[in-house]
Amino acid sequence: MLDTLGGIAGKSREFAILFLVIVLGTTAVPFTNGFPGELLLLKSVFGFHPVWGIIAGMTVILCAVYMLRMYQFSMFGEPKGSAFPALQWHERAALSIIVVMVLIFGLFPQKMLDISAPAVKNLLLLIKSTGEVMS
């Protein structure tokens, strides 16, 4: 309910900064966790069919617009509703861990790809063998 939020950045800069990094990871900004996956996905879709690649690229843009508008409405503008309390230590710790992981996975995506590669290969083999049975 974005209409009940607003002005949070003025009340808690620390929360606004941590939340911004998480939002940027969601929108697949370079050097965040979402970027490698979006890049690999768009590259694959473009390789399959360029028109579908353009459509997929548009969804990335729409996601970024949606998330940044959500951030704008919730963090800036006139304060609405009750006071926003300062972050407590456990909230700060949880958000900080998430932010660190967003940045680590964005800066070192190959580590995650290496971890998931065997499972992806098994899945692709299963799909290929199922396709052979179905034809």
How would you describe what is shown here?
This protein is 77% helix and 0% strand. It is mainly α and 135 residues long. The chain has one domain (2-109). It is elongated and about 60 Å long. The model has no long low-confidence stretch (mean pLDDT 91).
Q: How many beta strands in the DSSP annotation?
A: 0
Global mean pLDDT: 91
Unreliable segments of 5+ consecutive residues: none
Distance between the termini: 50 Å
**Dominant shape:** elongated
In N-to-C order, the SSE pattern is HHHHHH
Structural class of the helices, strands and pairings? mainly alpha
Radius of gyration from the alpha-carbon trace, in angstroms: 20 Å
Portion in helices: over 70%
- In percent terms, what proportion of residues is strand? under 5%
The number of helical runs is: 6
Number of domains: 1
Characterize the biggest β-sheet.
Answer: none
List its traits.
single chain, 135 residues, 6 helices, 0% strand
